[in-house]
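Marked as duplicate of an earlier ticket. Keeping the data here for the record.
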Amino acid sequence: MRAVRRRPGGDETRFPFSVPAIRTLKTLELPCPVTFFVGENGSGKSTVLEAIAAAARLPTVGSDDVQADGTLAAQRQLADTLELVWSRRTKRGFFLRAEDFFGFTKRLAVTRTELLARIAEIEVEYADRSAYAKGLAAGPARASLGALEARYGVDLDANSHGQSSTCSTSPRLR
């Protein structure tokens, strides 16, 4: 991404358009591969990043997608006024807030538990059937469980926060 341009729009008396940095934003040049946003609390750093994520339709590492997260409704309104300027549009990338990471690990744990429960149900349902029939029935759940564990490990909570973050985000950076 080379730049973010803001088109006119939004009620400047209401958040997020009332934030001075957003109200005056015309073009945000991004000339480097990495950009740091620095400023006081409440200056709009997170709001701008969340709006960019919504405008870019980035996948979210969290409990909700950017498009469905109720806490990001105002940021989606801001996103509607943004034009993202790409040197080359990439499909690689994701959006991660620290608070979302805990929701993501919780969602992974729930998904893993559901898959294990489904496999156990199939064992009971197919108790009188052949191993082949049982294997076919459990195959999709076992494959999903295997893919989940191969990508994220068996238990992200067993690692430090840094290790868990690296484990969950590194597949998206390959």
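See parent ticket for discussion. Helices lie at 20-23, 45-56, 73-79, 98-125, 131-152, 161-173.
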